[in-house]
Design a protein that fits this description.
Blueprint: E1 2-5, E2 12-15, H1 26-34, H2 37-46, H3 61-72, E3 77-79, E4 85-88, E5 101-103, H4 104-113, E6 121-125, E7 138-142, H5 143-156, E8 160-162, E9 169-171, H6 174-178, H7 186-191
Antiparallel strand pairs: 1-2, 3-4, 4-5, 6-7, 8-9
């Protein structure tokens, strides 16, 4: 990823070179478009003579207050669709900000460290609860270690079953258990004479629909 400076609000943001993003957010992109005279003239011609969707009406004071409380004018903390808490920055630039908000766990980690996180550093929730941003629940690590850590946590949740041939315990995915996994390896599968069995006898007895 590369860093660029938004020409509208001067915020430093990160993006991929292939995306060719020029602004930090959609609102800044719209402002940049409207700053071009040809775009403003085109939109004026496109909407000339068409009635506004509000048809001359305006929002009441109560409606404007509800819109502001819903986050359109800067609610401090929101829970995004990815489950993380984002904090409104009130226009302050931040390299990891999106639409004027930054992840709360990143801000807390940077406040404790006294510096900005490096591009390859991420914040991991120890108890895996994304909204629990207590200082003792946050672990600062590299992105590579973070992927490895989640892989280990996922392996711990994978069930263990015993091989029907050699008796060794091995881990399998839940989908393989549903399909009737029985052997720890292809060698055990061949040695057990699995392929000489009739099709109805190739399933584990405890997964077979006729099992009692």
């Amino acid at each position: 990823m590369i860093e660029r400076v938004c020409p509208v609000c001067n915020t430093v943001f990160r993006t991929y070179p292939s995306q060719n993003r020029q602004t930090c957010s959609r609102s800044c992109a719209r402002r940049l478009c409207w700053a071009r005279p040809e775009y403003a003239a085109h939109m004026s011609r496109a909407h000339k003579g068409k009635p506004s969707w509000m048809r001359g009406r305006t929002h009441s004071e109560d409606t404007r207050r509800k819109i502001g409380a819903a986050g359109y004018s800067g609610v401090e903390r929101i829970i995004a669709s990815n489950g993380y808490v984002y904090v409104y920055l009130y226009g302050m630039p931040h390299p990891r900000a999106m639409n004027g908000r930054a992840p709360e766990q990143v801000l807390i980690a940077e406040r404790v460290l006294g510096r900005l996180l490096r591009p390859n550093e991420v914040v991991h929730h120890i108890n895996q609860i994304k909204t629990d941003n207590r200082n003792e629940n946050l672990l600062i690590c590299t992105a590579t270690y973070h992927r490895w850590l989640h892989g280990q946590l996922k392996r711990r949740q994978t069930p263990w079953i015993r091989c029907d041939h050699c008796g060794r315990l091995f881990q399998v995915k839940t989908s393989r258990i549903r399909r009737g996994a029985r052997f720890c390896s292809q060698a055990c599968k061949v040695a057990s004479g699995f392929y000489q069995l009739p099709p109805h006898a190739r399933t584990r007895s405890d997964h077979h629909p006729d099992a009692r």
